[in-house]
Amino acid sequence: MAFNVGLSLQQPDEYHVPMEPLWVHCANCGHEWAVCGTPAPANDVSRALKAFGVCKMCRIQPRQVYMNRRPRTVRPGDSLGWLLYSFDTGTSSETMYHAITGTLSQRPRWRPGVPGDVQDFGRCYRLMKTMEVPMRDGSVGWRQFLPKVADAYPMWKPFVEAWDELCGLYESEMGQPQAPKTYARLKALGVLAERLV
C-alpha cells in the first residue's frame, strides 16, 4: 500500500518489514485516513500528523482527530479473533483473553502483561464489556472468569482483586482528558504486581 502524504518518509535500511498505515479518525464525522506509513522516524510521523491532522470531510479542528481507526461496536456473533487482533487490543487485554480462553498467543516474542496506564486498562475494560453476553449456564459475561487470569499470571492478582474498584474509577473519570485517580490506582497495583513476578 502506498501513502501519498506529501512527505518523504523513508525507512532505514535495517528495517525489513512492510510498512503499515498510521490511521487517524475524526471524532466528529467518523472519517478515517492514513497519514503516513510506519515504521518511520518519530519526527517524520509528527510532521505528517501536523500536516494532515484536519479532517477533509468536515474540517473539524485537529483536537478532534484521534489516533487509530474509529472504534467499532462488537456485536454478539462477531468473531473473538476479530476482537483480539483489532486495533483496540494491547498486551494486557490479550493476556486476559488468553488466560480466560486457555489459548496461547500466536504473536512472536509475546509476553503477558498487566495494564500499565489508563489506556491499557481501557482496553481490558472494553474486552470485558464486549463479553457481557449471556452464557449457557445463565451467567452473564467473563467477570466470573477473572480469577483464571490471576491463576495463569500471578502478577494479575492485585488487578483481579481490585477489578470492581478499577471499573468504578474508570467509569467515573470517562470523558476526562486525564484520569488521575484511575492512573494512581493502576500504578499502586503495578508495584504490588512486580513483587509477584
3D architecture notes:
A three-stranded antiparallel β-sheet has the order 2-1-3, covered by helices on one side. A hairpin with a 5-residue loop joins β1 and β2 (32-38). Helix content is 40%, strand content 9%. The termini are far apart. The longest helix has 17 residues, at 180-196. It has 197 residues and is mostly helical. The model is unreliable at 1-9 and 74-79 (pLDDT under 50). The protein is built from eight helices and three strands; from the N terminus they run ββαβααααααα. α3 runs parallel beside α4.
Describe how the helices and strands are arranged.
Blueprint: E1 20-26, E2 32-38, H1 42-51, E3 65-67, H2 80-84, H3 91-101, H4 118-130, H5 146-152, H6 157-161, H7 163-172, H8 180-196
Antiparallel strand pairs: 1-2, 1-3
Helix pairs in contact: 3-4, 3-5
